[in-house]
Design a protein that fits this description.
The protein is an alpha/beta fold. It folds into two domains: 149 residues, Rossmann fold; 98 residues, 2-Layer Sandwich (Hypothetical Protein, Haloacid Dehalogenase-like Hydrolase, Chain: A, domain 2). The protein is built from nine helices and 14 strands. A hairpin with a 4-residue loop joins strand 3 and strand 4. Helix 1 runs parallel beside helix 9. The longest helix has 13 residues. It is globular and about 55 Å long. The two termini are 19 Å apart.
Length: 259
Amino acid sequence: MTGKLIFFDVDGTLLDHDKRIPASAKQAVRELQDAGHEVAIATGRGPFMFREIREELGIDSYISYNGQFAVRRGEVILRNPIRPDLVQKITERALELDHPIVYMNDEAMKANIERHDYIEESMASLELVDKTMAWDKDYHIGREIYQCLLFCTIGDEMKYREEFPELGFIRWHQFSMDVLPLGGSKAQGIETYRKLAGVRPEDVYAFGDGLNDIEMLQTVHNSVAMGNAVESVQKAAKHVTKDVAEDGIRHGLELVGLL
């Protein structure tokens, strides 16, 4: 591969504050592809949660679940599920504390209870309520689970961090955390992808805005934080572009010399 490799986060990066892809971002992605660069998505979402985005942008490569399941040009290149015994143990503890869990694999996500205010409020921020959520308390049994969503307040977060040192936790909403295999991250997923694609580290670029993007932005050679990112995320990146709603993607690509 002779072109560059560019990864884009989804929420707050490709999608603006109204969950739409700005026209300038669509055009920028098209120009990158026409120039021979490889464009991919790096997100905490599951594959089924951004299928329409991939179709709209003509992208068939991605890192999902914060690096636990990756596809390049339509072919699966990485699977890193959570150990089944750990999924069961954290389920049992969450039930004791009255905290719901959502199990996620490459095909779907299922909650372990019928409904909960924390689930509805958290998922509403992604505009996914009643679109991809369903209930199956045994969905994790006999399936590879790449990520869980654990619904609890910040005040209860430390209980899980202390009791489950074999797992990684990333908070993305006041009522929800991503639960991952320890060490799993977008950064690790990108490194696996990069080696397979035969791309030099200096030819890799990443754009992001969330707390789950910090390690990626610190690790990738050419990193760009969105102008709408919080200060800690901006500090993790080498460059900071404009707000996603102010043509941030295009401005960032111009900033690093790709457009």
